[in-house]
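Hi everyone,

Forwarding the result from last night's run.
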Amino acid sequence: MNEKLSLLRKKAMALPMQPGVYIMKNKDKKIIYIGKAKKLKNRVSQYFGSQNNHSEKVRRMVSNVDDFEYIITDSEFESLILECSLIKQHKPKYNILLKDDKGYSYIRVSDELWRRIDYVLQKGDDSAQYIGPYTSSFYVKTSVEEAMKIFMLPTCNKKFPDDFKKGRPCLNFHIKQCCAPCTGRVSLKEYNERVDEALAFLQGGSSKTLKKLNESMQDAAERLDFESAARYRDTINAVKRMRDKQKVVNINIDEIDVIAVCISSNKGSATVLRFSDSRMFDKENFIVSDVDDEKVFMSEFLLRYYSMRDDVPKKIALSVNIDDADMIEEWLSQKKGKRVYINVPSKGVQKNLVDMCRENAFEMLAQQQGVTGRQLSVLEELKTMLSLETVPEYIESYDISNLSGEDNVAGMIVYENAKPLKSAYKRFKIKSFDGQDDCASMREVITRRLNEYKKLTEISENYDGELKETENQQSQKTDKGFARLPDLILLDGGKTQVAAVAPIIKEFGLDIPVFGMVKDDNHRTRAIVSTAGEIALKPNRRVFSFVAGIQDEVHRYAITYNRSKRKKIFSSSLEKIDGIGQKRAKELLRYFRTLANIKKSTIKELESAPGMNHTAALNVYKYFHEDE
């Protein structure tokens, strides 16, 4: 713990109750964090009080603070502007910093007889023509790809006229995305006309291009050049199709930015979709480490993002509400010179855009973690449905299995990032009582599981006061199932099982959400339950399939363990028969599946089993039919 914590708190308590900016420094006098406050005393003193309520990131930052400075401002809004300026200037370690990879992009037109169009990130030292620069590489890339398809220009590596008639035209020719100059049937004049039309489209947009193409089509028709007129007609239709395809929204505003954020494993993902004229013209993705609160992340992201951008849209749609929306709105309005509106849409087209943007944010984060965006988003949906404080990245589920109170066992399965983590699965044999009592069984299992965690997390301090690994801690590397606490526990059962387990967790001083999974009369997952009531699962939602999959998996795992124990018992009972050893006992159970089937089988049927002969089959039959 920081030795200067008490001194820093004393200094913080002497701060004024005025708005301002505070600047945290380490022992080398380097700025490590800059923040703003409505009341400096209240905000800064929170850092140096109890550390229990702080996130891991804040605790690390506080542990490195050696001193702090502050600047008083006339208003909270002025503190926001000053904070943005200072963060941009000093780039402190513990502030959210965005790496701006917005270089300049160009459209390149090669200097050759049969010209080629491409997109590049920087000018080359050659005689090619470069159109630009453009700040959006996304825009340049997608626009060039559109133009190549619309005007049927080649994207292959063939060199013309050297490669004329050296092979069959590729697939692009057959799907009408290339005019195939490689066949030698396209004249140089016609080819370069296509290139000129594509460049006009890239520089003037679809509206100007359509107007010019219509004029060219009419002119060709008047000259009775019907072949050229037909080509212009096909190109016009291609431009319209591409324009309609790109108009993914129908909104009556000139411009809007859609921003969504998500968090998983202390990493944040932010996606920005930028629209103009009902068309997405840019998309940006950012991954940020050490974030744990979506509202704070969104607020800081907006400030950092628009500090790097000069073009501010009229409207900004967000995926989550932020506390200082009014101030950021005022700041952006001043930056733009016109009123800017920030909102969190709840329905309609903008809500659909936010959902699409959020899916992209999840997908980017999922790629970092080796899962899919759908897997991460279903956890977010589960968090919302159950009103959890954090996304349940690590889920444990339990089920009890017995046969009329005999062979009472339990299974524990684990899902990490929405995928089964089979290396962490655990099996339990109920030891504290005989008979059938699912609630008592659940209590025993949860108690044993948490005791194992307690053993594994015991720590000791050496004489220097530093943390030292115990033998139990070192064993965490091999014991994945018990070394980590779950974010959520799902029991295969109803309210009574949840009520039986919840007090056990509290006795250990833990706060782990516990819910039950109940089935309908057709043994299909119906709802999630807590001690407060039921939460219905709608079959058309992804979370329904996810929870149902967990319930099916934990049931399979528990009942498989129960059956394996019964088979061992049955196998050992069969070994009591003369001529039946361990191998024959296993073969009999594998062939007949149950002991009941073996009992009711005839001698001939027993003899037909693998590894059996007449003598062994007769001995088995006599063993089960002594009375006869």
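The two ends are 80 Å apart (CA to CA).

Cheers,
N.
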